[in-house]
Every structure is written in structure tokens, then in C-alpha cells.
Amino acid sequence: MKPDVAALLDVQADDLRVYGIEDQLSALLPRLESIDADRKKANDAVSQARELVVADEKRQRDIQDRLRQHRELKDRSESLLGQVSSPREAAAAMAQIDQAKRFIADEERDVEMLSSRLGELRRSVTDREKTLKDIEQVQQETKASMDADRSALEKELGQLRAEREKKAQAVPRGLLQRYDRIRQKRRTTAVFPLRGESCAHCDTAIPMQRRSTMVATGATELCEGCGVLLYVAE
Known about the structure:
Blueprint: H1 3-81, H2 87-168, H3 173-186, E1 191-195, E2 198-199, H4 208-217, E3 221-222, E4 229-231
Parallel strand pairs: 1-4
Antiparallel strand pairs: 1-2, 3-4
């Protein structure tokens, strides 16, 4: 194997390691986005539950106001009942009292139902607030862990890229440029050996004349089938 090809294979090994680290860095973002989505969902659930509590509390106050008014009306009607002198006035007062009692019964039932519902809603708010707090705690811990991972990976990546550039100086410029064009498109292994008469990557047969030239000169050739660089292994 020509020294040029051996140097290129060393460069490729570093590039593959670079891709691996870059993939690890890229994988950190979806994890954080997933946590952010969970937090937003939990926060929306808390807001929704709080809005329901506020709405039912207002409804409860409105019913309690009406309940107070109807009780006052009932009390006044009962007071008037003792003062009337005619059957007609007594009947009217009794009708007002009966109507007020019906309203009071309905409103007391509504207040009781709302009180029970509000209790459940407030418990729901508490539970959802706890869930949100737990998610925020996990998010904080995860971010701290991810920041440490990212820092370590970026440091390793910087060192590896520097080593790669140093090794690349041993590869002829033309060969390195051909390799870079291929590996940037593929973002994976770009240099393969001949395997018998064929490309080791796609099994495309290489014409005899080209194989003979490669064996005689140690030159690299492009595979017509998959476009990778081919070399003759020892």
C-alpha cells in the first residue's frame, strides 16, 4: 500500500470519529426539546386547571349572591305575611315565599355541587403543579448533565479535528480534495479496498486495465458503481 493511501486511511479514521462525535452532539438537542415539550404540556395543564378554578369560583360567587337575595326576599315575604289583612295578599305573599324557597333549594344544590367540583379542581391544580415542579427539576438536572456532556464532546472534537488536519498534511492535495468531495456527500466511509476484481463496497466489477494500473502504480480510482475511492490493499 502506498504511503499516500495509508495516510489517507488515517485521515478517514479520524473523520469517522468526528462524525460519531458530531452525531452525539446533534442527539443532545432532541432530548432537550423533548423535555421542553413535556414542561410546556405540564405548564399548559396547570394554567387550564387554574382557569377552571377561577371560572367556577366566579360562578359560585354569583350563585351565592342570588341565594342571599332570595333568602332576603323570603324573609321579607314571611314578614309581610304576618301583616296582610286579605286572603289575596296572603296568597301573593305565600306564592313569593314558595318561589323563593324553590330558588333557594336550587341555588343551595348548585353551591354544594360547585363546592365539591372546586375541591376536585383545586386538588387537580396541586397535582399538576407538583408534576410541573418535578419536570422542571428533571429538566434542570438534565440540562446540567447535557452541558457537561456537550463540553466534553466539544473538547474531544476540537482535539480530534486538530489531529486530523495534521495527518491530512501527509496526503497529496489532489487526493485529499477528491476524498473530501466524496466523504462530504456520503458522511461515512469514502475509501474502500479492491476485493478481488470488485469494489468492496458495492461489488461492482472493475475493468482489468484499471485494476492493472492500480496494482502497478498504487493509484486510487473511483468506483463507477457507487462513487467511492478504491485502492489496492496488500
